[in-house]
Design brief:
Length: 276
DNA sequence: TTCCAGGGTTGCT
DNA sequence: AGCAACCATGGA
């Protein structure tokens, strides 16, 4: 499968290195990662970016949804916010993906009180330990595990892979997810979605917001990590619990507040001071 | 050595 | 309901 996209609408670094997915790396100007049992490559091709997917057959429509290609990222927000406008200008070609729910659930349980390079290592180790192997050009890659496959690992094994104290959360959540139909979340409001996701151990309001936004297409979900809280405090003068922050974000950024959140996250990490 | 990272859970008030 | 201590790990 091959898809080409205008380079102005798809900047791999601002998509894959933005903390929404943890399986993509850059090498020699080409971004590679695994999604939906495929090796995904994003390579520059003149005025376009060529996306090449190899592995388990997946329809073009599914890929289009994965990369959110049917959504134009121009004019998503109310026009009168200079901070957001600056953040948007600083991250051209950013897109919010629609990832697999179970992978997103597990990845963001791991993300709690953790940093992105380490999250990537742990996710990769879990895929190698429990995911279905597949071969592309003689290289062996691994899909993200199904819930039953992850549930088959021991707590000791998960700790050895770097999961630390989150190991039991991962196992219990994998067992729960094996009984779950994530398609049923399509009919729920963002608020109901975020509440229901918190039945998973290791999932609080922030992680639930990430799953809602990055996997369940709830574009008004507004997950607030330390960087988002920092930028909301310093540049918007807002501090408060996640419920109040969601209300504020909806008023300030509109129905695509989650996409605004992704621009702001990108901007904060490049322009704000760490710590405090 | 201490602090920090896309936080959550537990226990106390 | 709000709040603080605690939680594995590794890089800075």
């Amino acid at each position: 499968m091959e898809v080409t996209v205008p380079a102005t609408e798809f900047v791999p670094e601002n998509i894959f290195a933005c903390g929404q997915t943890f399986r993509f790396r850059e090498e020699g100007g080409v971004w590679r990662g695994v999604a939906m049992g495929n090796l995904v490559e994003a390579a520059p091709a003149g005025e376009e970016v060529r996306l090449t997917m190899r592995g388990r057959p997946v329809s073009r429509e599914t890929w289009s949804h994965y990369f959110d290609l049917d959504c134009s990222y121009a004019d998503l927000f109310p026009a009168a916010d200079p901070v957001l406008a600056k953040a948007v200008l600083s991250a051209p070609g950013l897109r919010v993906l629609n990832q697999e729910p179970f992978e997103t659930l597990i990845s963001f349980i791991i993300s709690a009180n953790n940093n992105i390079p380490r999250i990537m290592r742990i996710v990769e180790a879990i895929c190698e330990a429990a995911g279905d192997p597949f071969e592309v050009d003689g290289a062996v890659l691994h899909a993200f595990p199904e819930p039953e496959q992850l549930a088959g690992l021991s707590e000791a094994k998960l700790r050895k892979l770097g999961a630390g104290y989150r190991a039991p959360y991962l196992l219990e959540s994998a067992h729960l997810a094996a009984q779950e139909d994530f398609a049923s979340y399509a009919d729920l409001s963002t608020k109901e979605t975020v509440q229901r996701l918190q039945k998973y151990p290791g999932v609080g309001p922030k992680v639930a917001g990430c799953i809602a936004l990055f996997a369940l297409a709830k574009r008004d979900a507004f997950p607030a990590d330390i960087w988002i809280r920092r930028i909301m405090r310093d540049l918007y003068g807002f501090e408060g619990p996640s419920d109040a922050l969601n209300v504020f974000a909806g008023q300030q950024f509109g129905e695509y507040a989650g996409i605004a959140q992704q621009y702001l996250f990108h901007y904060a990490r490049r322009n704000l001071e760490p710590g405090s």
